[in-house]
Design goal:
Order of helices and strands: HEEHEEEHEEEEHE
Strand order of the largest sheet: 3-4-5-9-8-7-6-10
Number of strands: 10
Largest sheet: 8 strands, antiparallel
Mean pLDDT: 81
Number of helices: 4
Radius of gyration: 22 Å
Strand content: 25-35%
Low-confidence stretches: 3-10
Helix content: 25-40%
Length: 192
């Protein structure tokens, strides 16, 4: 009898213990001042953990991109940094992109007329944006993740490149003088 009471009491304790599993991470449909789809962001963040937060977003309002912008996101113990900036012709060469792409762990990405690179913790895309003054400026869009979650490096590189392409499509489409951005294809960029 005493054994039955202990078993029943033990089962009651187990049944009424608090659930220590972490809640599922909820990412909004739109992030970065509601300019960017949350779909690719969600794919990069862990499925559980600390709540999603848009820590800072500057100059991501749709239809109003400036010369530079930044959006810092976090969730599940992982941080994402999304940035864009206009680079003056004198400060940019396609050879510098080739050097970055050639670094170990990096893969070339193609997105319409834009080129860039992706890896396990960063992706960058460069878009020709000739100015009315005759300069050939470039829109640089980048996404970084820290720490890079446990995943196949190839999967993460594809997810980073998809997010950087989404951001380039949104920001480039809002720039009046960015001809290269008007020719972005639908879907993700090509790797390799």
């Amino acid at each position: 009898m005493a054994l039955g009471v202990v078993v029943v009491a033990g089962a009651g304790v187990v049944l009424f213990q608090p659930d220590h599993r972490e809640p599922a991470l909820s990412v909004p449909d739109r992030v970065c001042q509601e300019a960017v789809s949350g779909t690719q962001v969600k794919a990069l963040l862990p499925g559980t953990g600390e709540a999603f937060e848009e820590k800072r977003a500057v100059n991501f309002v749709v239809g109003g991109p400036q010369e530079l912008g930044r959006c810092d996101l976090s969730g599940g113990g992982t941080d994402l940094e999304v940035t864009y900036k206009m680079v003056q012709e004198a400060d940019f060469t396609w050879k510098s992109v080739q050097r970055e792409t050639a670094k170990p762990g990096r893969t070339l990405i193609w997105f319409g007329l834009a080129r860039g690179y992706t890896g396990s913790d960063r992706a960058a895309l460069f878009v020709d944006c000739p100015s009315s003054a005759g300069r050939k400026d470039v829109l640089e869009v980048s996404v970084g993740i820290n720490p890079a979650p446990e995943a196949e490096a190839g999967d993460r590189a594809a997810e980073l490149s998809a997010l950087v392409a989404d951001v380039a499509r949104v920001i480039g489409g809002g720039l009046k003088h960015c001809e290269g951005a008007s020719r972005f294809p639908y879907g993700p960029p090509k790797l390799g």
